[in-house]
Write a structure and sequence with these properties.
This protein is an alpha+beta fold. The protein contains 20 helices and 27 strands. An 8-stranded antiparallel β-sheet has the order 3-2-1-8-7-4-5-6. Strands 10-9-13-12-11 form a 5-stranded antiparallel β-sheet, covered by helices on one side. It has a 5-stranded antiparallel β-sheet with strand order 17-16-20-19-18. A hairpin with a 2-residue loop joins strand 12 and strand 13. The longest helix has 106 residues. It starts with a helix and ends in a 21-residue tail after the last strand. The relative contact order is 0.05.
Length: 942
Amino acid sequence: MNLTGKNQEMQPGINQETLLHRMTNRIRQSLELQEILTSTVAEIRDFLATDRVMVYRFNNDSSGEVIAESIDGNRLPSLKGLNFPADDIPPEARQMFLLARQRTIVDVTTQQIGLSRLDCPETGTPHAPEHIWYRSVDPCHAAYLTAMGVQSSFIVPILHYDIGNAQAKPQLWGLLVSHHSEQRRISEAEVEVVQRVVDQVSIAIAQSNLLSSTRSRATREATVNRVATLLHDCPTIEFQAALQATVAVFGGAGGRLYIQAPATHPEVVKSTEVEVYTWGEGPDLAKLGLGEPIEQHPDWQEVSGYCATAKRGIRPSAIADLYKVARCDRLAPSFADTQIRGLLVVPLEYRQQFLGYLSIFRKEIDTETLWAGQFDPDARQQFPRLSFEAWRQLKKGQAREWTQEEIELATALGYQFAMAVQQYQLYQQVQRLNSNLELLVQKRTAQLQQSLDFAKVLKQVTDQIRSTLESKTILQTIVREVRALLDTDRVLIYQFTAETQGEVVVEAIAGNWPSVLGVKAPKDCFPPEYVPSYKNGRVGTIEDTANANIAACHSEFLQSIQVQADLIVPIKRGEDLWGLLIAHSCRAPRVWTAAEIEVLQQLADQAAIAILQAELYEQSRDLALKEQAKAQQLEAALDELQHTQSQLIQTEKMSSLGQLVAGVAHEINNPVNFIFGNINYASEYTQDLLDLLHLYQKYYPEPHPEICDRIEEIELDFLEEDLIKLLASMKVGTDRIRQLVLSLRNFSRLDESERKPVDIHEGIESTLLILQHRLKPKAGHPGIQIIKDYGNLPPVECYASQLNQVFMNILSNAIDALEQSAISSRSYSVEGQKTATPKIQISTEVIDREKVRICIADNGSGMPPHVQARIFDPFFTTKPVGQGTGLGLAISYQIVVEKHKGLLQCLSQPGRGTQFQIEIPLRASVLASTGNRQSAGEQVSG
């Protein structure tokens, strides 16, 4: 049988699975995208055997850059780091990459382009993979590739999926491109393999983006904490230091903090009532002829985008280039002497009260882009470029766009500044009233302390949210801290499970008031308009349940849980109402203050953030677990494939060997039987002729002279003596041949595919007879001594042929080990010193009346523990390349343990030889324990 052909057929599939296995492991082991992309292009180029494979990533302006590349020597020039203009890839081609996940194959030699789509471009739904269909390639496209030195091109689109938003549509992230300087045909199988690798790359991109987002969020929170420490945790509020830190975070050239003092009429503000902190470069107010801060300029409110009546809250106004925005025309001259181009204005508002502005200024920058070939970026490319030599484009005085992350950071910092300003103003008010109104001072001090306590609780809750993603822990922290802060009897969170129904999920209680955990509100008790009003931000307060204007069933429900006053604020998740944060006073009626309502609203917002983060975390964790399960399935499939392959190879090998042995034995047996059956007759006939000759010599002692000459010529006396010996030797030889044939038939046992009672000793003897040529002394080797210690064994039910295969593998390995040990002994022995005689000891015995133990031991060099640990692993071998496949002991272990339900173990120590112990049941009905596999091997079988 031709096994080589089968191996060659199986090799492409193995290479494909190996490639996918390696890429999956690479993605699991690393979240660094560049490392994954570099490995990807190298693996795919090695798989396709093309000259260049690269990853091309699209920029926001539809241009692109080669960010990873693998090249075969100098067959094609490197394009890594080069940018390509948007016109190089037509919009309709990008649409087909995105909507249909279209793969393209271009053959410049035949002027053909092959297309293969995975999705329907009209509906976006996947369909069965279609064959590659070819058409004529656009001449401009062919000329473009020819100018690059490319004769064969293969492109697979790379899509980006937002794993944090299941509703988000995929985006065209980039392309995986293969170039070859010669004509090469890409098969459909290669297309599918590369597509599967690209799918893994898309997962890696999504995971990397999620990691980047997490890191960015952590960095943003650390920045907010650092600035918040300057604003809240220092003995005095460090506005100047906080402003300097904020400008540094954004890489700005300068900044301003404008604080407007509280006034009875906010629209009437004098310049003497405001405070302005500046750092670094800023506007020159003299250019505008102003004697007051620029924030009081009539056009500033339009620039900032803040409108008090619109109640926009803290929404920064981000202007990348103030010279290109019409509403900045009258303010731009004040920045003319600086390099400031970018402006970020954050209105400061706290508790619906305008407090001022936080402004960041950013300089212009010089940009440098490395293009693949020179072109006019202001004109559409009409003809393909004839050169792709790197062209460096420098642009001076460019404006930097404000990123969404920077705007979100500015929003968070603005909130911290607003809180600090509000606290600062409260403190100032207290100081102004301190001289005359002691009672008012105490009241304001209490308010300030309460604000500080609220901020502390808010910070604790915020820290808890940052330290864990377990929503249950965060919600429990909120109710515990709120209960202590408000000094109330019970605080709980009520989660809606339906439009108007829900239950209490967490609570904190002081004293012996009854628990309401898991309690559900009475059905049809609350008016249906309550839910929409809570969605719109309604805050519910009841100061005395006995006198409240509520429904009778509502009053009864509150009395049943001993509530005399309550405060309810909604917890919203986006536009949906998730639940309610509720404070109960059970001891007595209570008047809820505005500050208490405010802090409860803020904590409800923090609870909403915690819930959203926990849900996103659960989604990402579930997705990661699914992908990990897929990777494990791929790994298991690969292991199963390798195991099956090893079984197939060894089975075919032993089957071929058995057939060969049986055929040879059969073909030899017939002529040998013929010779053996007639040798006795030949001996008798020869003896009769010799007796007749003796009679002639007796009665005719004087023969004719010619006969005498002939007798002397043929040496009749010697011939008569040697002929008898010759026939005896022929009889011994035929006996030897018949024994060898019988041993070969016993070893192969092709007619015994089922369990049958057999003589174990007969199988061992047959194996030894086959290996006899390796046991005899030869040049440079003294020969191997066989020591047998056979017990009285009954017939054993087993698969005789397979068990003979085990004996063959173990004895062959023992002989290999002894030969290698003899070579090593000659290399290192002292002259004149004798080395130990190589020995193999074979012993058999019956144990526990149900099992048979066969021990095969040698006095070789033994093996170290790390070799023993892997001796039964498929494909593991310590022999030189070409002398072993590493399958012999793996198959032997399977035959003994799995087929015979027995035990195969190896005991070895370096320098003390190796012993293999085989234990199998006497009868098929007795199942032996396989035990723990102990592995080792001096020379792993081939």
